Amino acid sequence: MVDSGQLKSHQQPRKPDCIALPEISLSDELRSIQNQIVVINDSGIDMSWSIHDIFTARACDELAVKLAEAIPDGDIIHVRARLGASSDFLVHAGVLRDDFVYDVEGVHDVDDWVERWSRGLDVEIHFRDPLSERRTFASSQSEVLAGDVADALMGVPEFAKAGISLALL
Predict the structure, then answer these.
(1) Alpha helices by DSSP H, the chain
(2) How far apart are CA 123 and CA 118, in angstroms?
(3) Cβ neighbours of residue 70 closer than 8 Å, sequence gap 6 or more
(4) Residues near 62 by beta carbon (within 8 Å), at least 6 away in sequence
(5) DSSP 21
(6) C-alpha–C-alpha distance, residues 56 and 73, integer Å
């Protein structure tokens, strides 16, 4: 299970503040992981965050890297909002495999997932090679947390087929 510990980061917490996302039906196991609280030390201040909040509003790209390591044939997918001709920012990241996206909220049809995270925004969809995204981690502690959460997610019912190679399905 996820180990509560301290995680240092230089990023300020960012929370989605403009879009109410539709509810998703979840197993008790997945909801339990999402609701776990982790204390993050940010510039000397301890802040309590749920796993769900960390990996939807702060470090979804870190979790995507670790999930991609656990999901055979998975590619990292980013929804990025355009801010102008040469600038964009990451809205959310997950792992795409076989028309489904895996993230801290579960498993989603790729079209539904893109719609969910792009509402009201001018977006681009980017695909990333998991090996090129290793530099994503803010610290060694954040990498450990993302790995622990990815391992826990791979054990919930929603992710049952994710760990099986497409060649074996």
Answers:
(1) 28-35, 51-57, 60-70, 110-118, 140-153
(2) 6
(3) 150, 151, 154, 162, 163
(4) 55, 136, 137, 138, 142, 143, 145, 146
(5) P
(6) 23
Instruction: For 20-68, write each residue's pLDDT tens digit.
Output: 444 567 899 999 999 999 998 878 899 999 999 999 988 999 999 999 9
Angle between helices 28-35 and 140-153 (to 10 degrees): 170
d(CA 21, CA 138): 27
User: What tokens were used for 165?
Assistant: 């190679």
Structure tokens at 136: 């994503």
Looking only at the bridges linking them, the beta strands covering 75-82 and 45-50 are unpaired
Q: 168: pLDDT confidence band, cut at 50, 70 and 90?
A: low
Task: Give this prediction's pTM.
Answer: 0.80
Helix (H, G, I), strand (E, B) or coil at 167: helix
C-alpha 101/C-alpha 93 separation (Å) is 9
Handedness of CA 40, 33, 25, 169 (dihedral sign): positive
CA 141 to chain centre: 16
